[in-house]
Amino acid sequence: MSISAVAIDPRVANVTVTEEALIVTLSDGRQIRAPLSWFPRLAAASPAARQVWEPAGAGHGIHWPEIDEDLSVDGLLKGFPAPDRRR
User: Fold this and answer.
1) 3-class SS at 17?
2) Residue-by-residue pLDDT tens, the chain, 87 positions
3) Which one of 3.30.2020.40, 3.40.50.960, 3.90.1150.10, 3.40.50.2000 gives the CATH number of domain 12-45+52-78?
């Protein structure tokens, strides 16, 4: 009997930020969805600034240059909210 292994690739493929949630799609097809309230800097940013993101750390993180916010895929997978650094 043969067993097919599923390729796990936890790199960012796409990011969507709505008024309610951050949704990150990974290269292997998984989606991470978390409340936008967990990410105070993203929540406080304009909708236009939220849409300008780039992969960071070879795709293992996300960077929003217009608001200087960085999140790691590892932290998102573990369910860690971002600290409020606006103060």
Assistant:
1) strand
2) 667 667 789 999 999 999 999 999 999 999 999 999 999 999 999 999 999 999 999 999 999 999 999 999 999 999 999 877 655
3) 3.30.2020.40
